[in-house]
## 1
Amino acid sequence: MSCKSAFGYLISNDEVKYATCQWDGYPEHMIPELKKYWNTSSEAMELINNKEMEELNEGVAIIYNDVDDDHLEKYIITLEEFKNLEDVEYFYLFEDDKWLVLDKHTSTEFEDIDNVILESNEFIEVYNKIITENRK
């Protein structure tokens, strides 16, 4: 599914170094991916150093557009600019050794990815509840 996302690393109080990804940016795909493969400070920075990715899957970043060193400064912006990147639906920010997420459709603030209920998890919870109730 085409769903652009952006990944940021807070490098100061108001500066973010970031990268973008063209495909599968929705939380159901990205949150498990970030938790499993990109969950430390060095792994998060490695991910963000990819700049422009086409896809991120199973710990592999497929590069969309290779950026030369002369244009690297455009990938450091303010936090407010990061939250307003054009055509991005989901934002992931690595801050204080954890990932945060911002869903542009439902919120204006970042939240800890561990507090996000994914639709797939919600389905499993409802399904398990129904099964448990039917066994009584």
## 2
Amino acid sequence: MKRDSRISTAYHEAGHAVAYFLTDRKFIDVIIKPNQKDNNLGCLRSNNMIDLNNMKIQKVFNPCFHTLAGVTSEAIYTGRKDHIGASGDYHNIADMIRSCMEGDDKTTNLFLKFIKSYTYDLIKYNWPFVEIVAKKLTEVETLSYAEFIKVNADRFKLSDDALTHYKIKNGSAADFGIKKKPGI
């Protein structure tokens, strides 16, 4: 992978990881290694499977945010809208929105516009957090959830004891003092 593509992918995947964390969802790991079989440059692996047959608007909000956070982080970092590996993300978002909007294009477009704005605001507000994760990903290619927490220990102001106990296994954004943008 070329250096520019690698760094853009790191920011993209860091956005996914930060979004998961901000919505109190754990993930297995985040990777910036190309996978030709799945046609991606990186991915966030989680146990959070989405059942599109049982999707309601309340259930689709966070998964859309998680998905758009990668595209948004990459766009903020590169300053461009032509996202390197975002086609799969856009496909997933479209499937999620369609599954709960039942074909109403006007409502679907309004929801998409809102979730894009929400995602941009929250990622921009937490940009230093995204940068820390992206820089670490360019060094190691794969970051587990526990490593993700350790990388951000200074930001969370956590002691080594806190890292090895409850917070690594069960911590949420609120537990770590991460503040979501007021009003969001």
## 3
Amino acid sequence: MKVLVVDDDSGIRSILRRRIDAESVVCAKSADEAQAVLESDGAPDVVFLDVRMPGRSGIELMRDIRETWPDLPVFFITGSDEGNAALVEECLQAGGQSVIFKKDYRAFIDQINRSVDRIAKAEDNFDRAGEMLTEPRRRWRQ
């Protein structure tokens, strides 16, 4: 599984690079750097995207992501207070799967890894469904 982390905080990028259980974790420090990564490497399996960054915001990048990859799972991450309902609504309306808050370190890391696991399981189920559909065709052709 390939994960893209976009956050202007080098500490968050470093922690997530070490703590996310995935075969590949690519980090970008800005929306523009993330856009370049997406254009050169293609879509990852999941994106963790900081809401507020210098330059373009995560929400602005999200609009660009949705134009090219409408089904790419994107989870917003933020240092804002959990009670910020307007921010959560804006992130969800932009197309985010959910908003993960950075305030409580253990809960933050736990939510990140649960999100990665959820996407991995969905991909496994999708792959198995595809195999189930192609197997009868192979038998029929023989």
## 4
Amino acid sequence: MKLLIADDDTLFRMLLRQTLASDYELEIVDNGDAASSALQRDDAPQLAILDWIMPGLSGPQVCRNVRSRCKSPGPYLLLFIARNNVAEMIAGLQAGADDYVTKPFNPEELRARVHVGRRIVELQSSLESQIAATRNALTANELLQKTVLPCNLCQLPQADPEFLRRVRSLLQALPEDSPKPDPLGVQPSTHSAD
């Protein structure tokens, strides 16, 4: 998974690279403008660690920019704050950060917090896929019901060729492991007879 690191301090960038390079595909920038641009791309990293103060946009400004432009949940944003600075923590979370890490950081704590972010991003992606598959299945089921159930006026199945073509294409678009809709809306029993 791609992880963006935005920090203007060369030493911290090096420490972050050593801490995270074995688990993530890193993209490293040294200013807020570059971070904001990277997070707006179509292939944007889904995780980001942002320093609070850096040239160009600050970490909170990057968070606000990203959140104002994202249609979906967007990337998971971690913000570096000064140790024991509750005001920065609150301001950073209000700006759109998902979590924070104090500077100087503990490598194990940082890895754990980034791992939580990765897990959340993966869960969001899985949920979005499941929602799309469910919508497709519901649409296909509605179309099948219209095909099989008789028309209210003529009592004949609604077997329009274009309609049937749409049903077939929707059924083919369903993932292999998704349940196929039953024309009458009844799912087969998963219980054994014994």
